[in-house]
Amino acid sequence: MPDVQPLVSEFVLKLKRRKVEGSHAVARQTAELLRSVVSQHRMGSTNQAAALADAIRSVGEQLISANPIVGNIVRRVLHIIKEEDISSTAVGIEGLSVTVDSDDEYDSGNDDHPTLSAAVLASHARNALRAPSLQTLLDDIPVSTALSRSASSTGDSDGKTAGDKSLKTRKLKHDVIAAIGDLIEEIDTCYDQISEQAVELIHQNEVILTLGRSRTVKEFLYAAKEKKRSFRVFVAEGSPRYQGHVLAKELVEKGVQTTVITDSAIFAMISRVNMVIVGAHAIMANGGVIAPVGMNMVALAAQKHAVPFVVVAGSHKLCPLYPHNPEVLLNELKSPSDLLDFGEFSNCMNFSTQDGTPLLNVVNPTFDYVPPKLVSLFVTDTGGHSPSYMYRLISEYYSADDLVVQRKSTS
Amino acid sequence: MSQKKSRGGAAGAGDDAEDLSRSPLQAVLLADSFTLKFRPITLERPKVLLPLVNVPMIDYTLSWLETAGVEEVFVFCCAHAQQVKEHLEDAGWTGQPAAREMAVTAVESHDAISAGDALRVMYGRGVIHGDFILISGDTVSNMSLKDALQEHKDRRKKDPLAVMTMIIKHSKPSILTHQTRLGNDEIVMAIAPETKELLYYEDRADGSHLCVTIDKDILASNPTLQLHNNMEDCYIDICSPEVLSLFTDNFDYQHLRRHFVKGLLVDDIMGYKIYTHEICSSYAARIDNFRSYDAVSKDIIQRWTYPMVPDVLSFGNCHEVKLHRQGIYKASDVTLSHSAQIGANSVIGNATSIGEHCKISNSVIGAGCCIGKNVIIHGSYIWDNVIIEDGCKVSNSLVGDDVHLRAGAIVEPGCILSFKIKVGKNVVVPAYSKVSLLEKPSNEDSDEELEYADTNSGVTDSPPFSSMRSNAGRPAVPSKDDDLGASETGTSGVLGYIWASSDTGTQEDWRQSIAPIPKEKLQEMQHAVSVDDDNGSEEDLNNRQYEQDHDGDSEISVVEDDDYTKFEKEVEETFQRALDGIHEDNLILEINALRLSYSLQHADCAGAVFYSVMRSASVAAQSTNDNLLKTTADALAKWKDLLRNYTKTVDEEMEILLKFEEMCQETTKEFCSLFSKILPYLYDKDVVSEDAILRWAEEKENADEADKVFVKQSDAFIQWLKEAEEEDDDEEE
Question: For residue B282, what is the nearest residue in chain A, using CA coordinates?
């Protein structure tokens, strides 16, 4: 894809240099990039969906290596392609199930992807839990073969009329682009949809505690304020980036009673709080939350005093991965300069007079992992959910075989 | 494209976009350090391509420039130009311009031997049109240039003479060693606090005397100025195009700091000004020597350079690196034995295998290395494709590409093993050795990186230390020097030339090597510092009267040398020359000339000359009091004519007495006890008259006790003088 490659590498560089930050911006720009990848993709006559998915994968791989947080959107787009493809095939052809068996046997011979095998097994396990729908029924077939099977069968049936085929080709592409457009819109409008639920959750004269600054939380509180709810907000400043200060300013501008506290005062203040509302960086498949650093402390404090801990996040933050290994935690250690002034401490880092061993270490993680048992409620654009329901929600947005975004070697 | 995009990513660049539209932001990157500090490695590979935490240094610099919004970079290659160009091509910096926001052009020149020459070549090309960033290819930074550029541009609008903005960073020098953690000498700068104009720059400040010399004009023309010794020069400069023409006009400018910056600061005819910009939270440092290589590597591992850290910024064809707990970075396919212990702050490159029971700590290991069993690596930098066999021990050393350490070899701290060196079984490479396959050039060849006459250079001019090179086919032939000690088993040695010996350990060796400074050296220095401190405070007292109004921001006690002390020094130097046999008349002429040029009084001259005489006496005397008295008497006898030449009036004689007293109290205390004995001698030789002595005694009547010490000491003599005078008076009557 020579036409999109410059765009992709530019975005990859931006991600690498951490020039694009904030989940909303990243999600939106990734989706836009992938849309242009799709629209510039030249459709072949056969295996369209697989080729398209491959194109997305190859781009997705680069993006994820630059910054793993874009993985959600890549997976969403892959899922969209699959869904659109399947729905178009399902509508177009009757008696698909008859051809499936024969193709299946044929494909399993050469379509063996060791890298995906774990994912395939996982998908089997998961599919049992899915709600019965047309797609999931079809998905139940070993997934790695599903794509090529359906695509090749499309090709077979399309072979009859050329005009029909080109129409199909355009239709699939058009559908995918439209669906990605929907996704972008969803990313943009998630705030409104989440905020609509604010009045139901925030009651008169309540005290809300939040940590740092999350746009979703801000909109959520704004919405409650607009509905004439009177409440007070405690804002923990969220060291070391102190985004809480910004949030406090914004809230005061809207006329919300705001109190700024240090992060270390959270435990002391929590007993006066009716509800904790925080944003998230990502929501994992087990209902755990990746959130700005310090959040675990807030969650523990809330649990200790039985204060509801509510996480508000758009559905693009749902991540189909499980936090079983540290790499999946999407954590990132930032520069110690947020904490310390280099100049003041430079004599502590004079390796010539020490034993060559750095005596001063600074750890500045960006995120915390909050286990699901500490979360009382998730508020997403589709409504409120308990942590144990997250896997279900996630399976509606993602295909199980996309967990590992890696280009298929054979195609 | 979308509103969000313009708000998020492009907003930062948006502000300077208008400015940049006039002329694209350019940068000149010097891919040559023009020093010899990284020899012998730089004989085979240019310094900018040396891996810093497994990534060539120049990639850090280029990607920072790209992040900072530079649109066009000229990479000036000199030594090993071909290698630099190939690297730029391979890493995707040059070629396919569409993929990059920044265009990189290599400029090659083989006859440039200094940064000055390089800039003259750049001027000759005529490619620089607007403000540009001047940076060396060994600089690591993550700062944002936006503010500094804006400041520079605003200043330029107001004052076209502001040609350069220097980026500086707050950093404390080590109290013990009087050098920064980067191994270079501490820099003393004088900066006007409001305008941030740089008024004075000294990178070789004599730390041992805690003394800087600042021109009086600077003090006179600036109501306040701040002296900093806690600033680090980042060697990132924002320059106006005039800088290039300045270099061309002054063809003797070689070094950017020592010649150019100092030249501009001293030269007030053109009135060009240099300003500074201090960065606070971001990081910038230049790798100047092995010590800074070590320090910057550790900073990168500790993530001060974020996002330029191994796991975030993977350049070009580098493999993915993951960060584990305790600052351990591992590439994706490392083969690690279960029993191997990887300590904190280590980096292990791609396709490297590490055997059983290895212990690795604070080290960087490159790609494709093969490390056997029971190997201990501490604080070292192992580059690519190194083979280390079982039981080796490497500490605080740098091991180049394709080096082979056979079983049991020990590399002691501070060693530099250049490319393809083979170290035999159980051989001990002594501390601070530099080993290379290439012979040490006996005379500095202009093909290579060449440092202009620099007394402080890290490489001594001694002939090649070891020169028995084996034939290429036969590995590990004993070629080590005999003086390497009995630890060598004798079956095999080191294949290559050993450049520097270990036992002497010149100062540069331990100061600027990767190894930490040895304990005993530290103690020595500590001792030296405490002595210096005494001296410093005395001088401070001594000169306080001359001190003008300035902000005492600096941490060292700064002594401002005014004209008089300078004059005194020059007189002393002249006098020293006179001791070597210049005729007295000439001496008087010279001193008179000095007096005129410093526009001082005869009295000042008298003091200075007397001081010089006494100093020469005390130097000759070798401490014992009898000797001292004798040599002083000799010196006075010899130079009485010279002194008399200046002691025409009582005032001048007084000056001598006061000077003498001051010397006894402060600088040369050995005269202290001899004051009363020397005073009559001065009287005898007609250097001072009795009037002067009496007036001196009178003046001291009202002084406090401390000042009266010498009056009391010579009480008897004064009494005698008084009586003699009375007698004279009587006689007259």
Answer: A337
Residues of chain B found within 8 Å of residue A355, distances taken between Cβ atoms: 516
Phi-psi region of A292 (alpha: psi -120 to 50; beta: other; left: phi over 0): beta
Same-domain status, A301 and A383: yes
- pLDDT for A246 beyond 90: yes
Whether B98 contacts chain A with CB within 8 A: yes
pLDDT of amino acid B442: 59
Strand duo B328-331 + B346-348: pairing: parallel
| pLDDT greater than 70 at residue B380 | yes
What are B166-224's pLDDT values in tens digits? 999 888 777 666 666 777 777 888 888 888 888 888 876 555 556 777 778 888 888 88
Interface check B361 vs A, CB under 8 A: yes
Number of domains composing chain A: 2
What is the average pLDDT across B19-34? 77
Mean pLDDT value across chain B: 75
ipTM: 0.77
CB neighbours of residue B486 within 10 Å: 7
Assess whether A174 and A76 both reside in one domain: yes
Structural domain includes residue A145? no
Q: Are residues A239 and A300 in the same domain?
A: yes
Q: Which of B174, B307, B324 sits opposite A352 (nearest CB)?
A: B174
Q: Looking at A123, A156, A191, which one is the last position of a domain?
A: A191
The Cα B113–Cα B120 span in angstroms is 11
Residues A254 and A217 in one domain: yes
Residue A149 within any structural domain of the chain:
no
CATH at residue A9: 1.20.120.420
Contact assignment for B9 to A65 by CB distance below 8 Å: no
Assigned domain for A279 exists: yes
CATH number for A233: 3.40.50.10470
Q: Judge whether A241 lies within some domain.
A: yes
Q: Are residues A265 and A176 part of one domain?
A: no
Are the Cβ atoms of B172 and A351 closer than 8 angstroms? no
Q: Which residues contact B494 (CB under 8 A, 6 or more apart)?
A: B421, B422, B423, B424, B427, B429, B435, B479, B480
CA B576 – CA B429 distance, rounded (Å): 47
Range of the domain at A70: 1-95+166-191
Whether residues A172 and A33 fall in one domain: yes
Q: Which residue of A has its CA nearest to B304?
A: A335
Q: Which domains does chain B have, with CATH numbers?
A: 2-8+24-186+229-293 (3.90.550.10), 315-440+456-501 (2.160.10.10), 564-732 (1.25.40.180)
Cα torsion B180, B182, B186, B191: sign: negative
Going by their DSSP bridges, the two strands B422-423 and B494-495 should be labelled as: antiparallel
- Output B545 or B677, whichever has higher pLDDT: B677
Residue in A6, A65, A342 nearest the CB of B99? A6
Same domain, A66 and A185: yes
Among A18, A22, A353, whose Cβ lies nearest the Cβ of B8? A22
Q: Which residue, of A158, A191, A224, is where some domain finishes?
A: A191
What does the DSSP assignment read for B317-335? Answer: TPPPEEEEGGGEEEETT-E
CA distance A388 to chain B (A): 30
Name every chain A residue with its beta carbon within 8 A of the beta carbon of B323: 333
Would the pTM count as exceeding 0.90?
no
**Cα→Cα distances B196→B155, B199, B224, B265, B274, Å:** 11, 9, 11, 14, 9
Same structural domain for residues A179 and A261?
Answer: no
Chain B: closest CA distance from residue A380 (Å) = 21
Q: Across the interface, which of A5, A16, A28 has its CB nearest the CB of B312? A: A16
Digit-coded pLDDT (tens) for B296-345: 998 999 889 888 888 777 665 566 788 888 888 988 888 999 999 998 88
* Distance between A353 CA and the closest CA of chain B, angstroms: 6
User: Cα–Cα distance between A392 and A242 in angstroms, integer?
Assistant: 35
